[in-house]
């Protein structure tokens, strides 16, 4: 498996992976009405031009991806995803570590649903610390986590 920067030709395959990978999140809420499942290729292209999208490729197929952009010394990381049959193999951890290397010595921020316990555990294992929660509606609450390279000396 190789991790590298995605190019524009990869974006549709990444979006297809996103639709597949986020089904587990949708099941947590018994609803497919979540932003990652409604994102368009146009929006993915905008994110591509705003920052960096990485892809994890195995046998010529994209099996994982993550996105990030930097603003005011903070790197905002999002859409960390791994194909459902490839999960629990360290691919998400490798993607997250690799995206941090593109933005050295910054503060990193990401968020996930409070119901995504496995995601939260992985982030905490990698040095991320929860700093706020935001209620979206009666069903959905996000937890925001941060990591500061200067504090952790990584």
Quick structural gist:
The chain has 154 residues and is α+β, with helices and mostly antiparallel strands. It has 7 helices and 7 strands.
What secondary-structure arrangement, pairings included, does this model have?
Layout (H helix, E strand, L loop, with lengths): L1 E4 L5 H11 L1 H7 L5 H4 L2 H10 L1 E7 L2 E11 L2 E9 L8 H12 L4 E7 L3 H9 L3 E7 L5 E8 H4 L2
Parallel strand pairs: 4-5
Antiparallel strand pairs: 1-2, 2-3, 3-4, 5-7, 6-7
Beta fraction of the residues?
25-35%
Return the string of H and E elements.
EHHHHEEEHEHEEH
Please give the count of helices.
7
Q: What's the N-to-C terminus distance? A: 24 Å
Q: Give the CATH superfamily.
A: Gcn5-related N-acetyltransferase (GNAT)
Shape summary = globular
| Biggest beta sheet attributes | 7 strands, mixed
CATH second-level architecture: 3-Layer(aba) Sandwich
Looking at CATH, which topology would you report?
Answer: Aminopeptidase
Report strand order across the widest sheet. 1-2-3-4-5-7-6
Radius of gyration: 15 Å
Annotation, overall tally of beta strands: 7
- Extract low-pLDDT stretches: none
Highest-level CATH class? Alpha Beta
What's the average pLDDT?
93
Number of domains: 1
Helix percent band: 25-40%
Structural class, by secondary structure, is alpha+beta
